[in-house]
Amino acid sequence: MTREQAEAIYFQGKEAVIDCLLQFAARLQHVEEQVAKNSNNSSKPPSSDGLSKETLKPMPQSLRKKTGKKPGAQPGHTGKTLLPVESPDQIVEHRPATCQKCDADLRNAPDVSYTRRQVFEMPKPKVIVTEHRAFTVTCSCCGKESSGAFPEEVKNPVQYGPNFLGLATYLHSVHLLPYHRCATIMRELTDCSFSCGSLHRALTVAAECLSHFDRKLQQTLSKTALLHADETGSRVAGKSHWVHVRCNQRLCRLFLHERRGGEAVRDLADYDGRLVSDFFSSYVRLSCSHQFCGAHLLRELTFAHAILKQPWAGSLKNILEQMVSSCHSVRASGETLAATGEELARQFDALVGEGLARNPLPETKPKGRGRPAKGKVRCLLERLRDYREQYLAFLFDLSLPFTNNEAERDIRMLKVKGKVSGCFRTVTGAEVFCRLRSYIVTCQKQGMALLECLRSVFAGSPILPALNPT
């Protein structure tokens, strides 16, 4: 604002000055709130927190409480260690040639005892080339020539086998190695030529082989009683896209879409189970039952308490943590939470009411069109009041989780891949990655050996996880 503009407001009178000061105060508060946000008190990703301690942002405040336990394994932890085997693959004997005292020859001396030490080692990987020959034979009776048939999986004059391609896909899709590094590792391990193009073709073939599995997985997830949903942005072919996840404790499906909401959540339009998600409007508008993520709520309450100095927010955060602790205790004991749950819910309602009283609706109306801004705290409180049942559903149904961590864990590896390898160059490449990750994460959740599963895909008979609605 220039001096001339300030003078013009001054000469307009008292009300104009007050209105201008209120607008500046609102803008200043908005800027301060944005600066104070980090990954622990909002939905911002940890990568936005920065590394410098001298930044304007406050130090992150962890949502975890101290338990008093020492770091490391806790009492009762069994642990794992390398143990000797009874039947080693090979034995190397070390006998003394001469006596250590008189230098007598000990080559034919009888054995008294021995001690053993075992070395666990893997052989150097070596590619075995198998040549398939289909002979043509002439019948001695009729003179007809008959040719032998190659196995179904042997389709090209020269090709890689399922073990080779399964390992390459395992490195790329499970451990998220970039194309070039994955191809380099395969060449150095096997002394066999292998390029980024060969890996790309292998991933495409695997995704095509799993197309039926992907359709069946989508149908199964749409019938589950409990479903987690989330999404994250990704750069694909130079444009912004969104990777969506639909999952539960045994199944996971990732898919790519150009949009975050609207058409992207159309697969949930007829879903009639319980959906666990954050408070994203496209999910909220769905007609199914909801459980909104409590971890997001705790971060919002941390911001309201620590940054905006709202005392009710700290108390409400403690009540939510008591609810979670009570649910864990009840699950362990097999009892019910009826009386305790109702009391905690009443305390929740009382604190929300206190917060609404401390944060009334603004009285002044802005010039022109529109309504006065309520502010983030007032919007949060109204949301807790209007969607109380959806936030506290976990308290009265112990089968429901408090957070949406199931979906966030399944989609988190996409961000890791983005940091390691960068963006996707093509839409097809992103769709291939999502389909392979859907298969991999589902197999992983069901305790299956991932390397063997990927090998079976290239062998033409993929090992499929159980796809039963739960």
Could you explain how this protein is built, in words?
There is one protein chain. The protein is α/β, with parallel strands linked by helices and 470 residues long. The protein contains 16 helices and 7 strands. It has helices at residues 3-11, 14-36, 162-174, 179-190, 196-209, 211-221, 281-284, 294-306, 311-333, 338-358, 376-386, 388-391, 393-396, 405-421, 427-445, 450-458, and strands spanning 136-138, 145-147, 226-236, 239-247, 252-257, 274-277, 289-292. The strands form 2 sheets. Strands 5-4-3-6-7 form a 5-stranded mixed β-sheet. It has a two-stranded antiparallel sheet with strand order 1-2. Strand 6, helix 7 and strand 7 form a beta-alpha-beta unit. Helix 3 (162-174) runs antiparallel to helix 4, helix 8 packs antiparallel against helix 9 (311-333) and helix 10 runs antiparallel to helix 11. The relative contact order is 0.12. The mean pLDDT is 88.
Core attributes:
single chain, 470 residues, alpha/beta, 5-stranded mixed β-sheet, two-stranded antiparallel ribbon, 7 strands
Return residue spans where pLDDT drops below 50 for at least 5 consecutive residues.
none
Average pLDDT over all residues:
88
Portion of residues in helices? 40-55%
How can the largest sheet be summarized? 5 strands, mixed
Shape verdict? extended
| Intertermini distance | 62 Å
Q: Rg from C-alpha positions?
A: 32 Å
- In what range is the share of β-strand residues? 5-15%
Count of discrete alpha- or pi-helical segments spanning 4 or more residues: 16
H and E order: HHEEHHHHEEEEHEHHHHHHHHH
**Which class do the helix and strand fractions yield?**
alpha/beta
The neighbouring-strand order within the major sheet is 5-4-3-6-7
Report the count of strand segments: 7
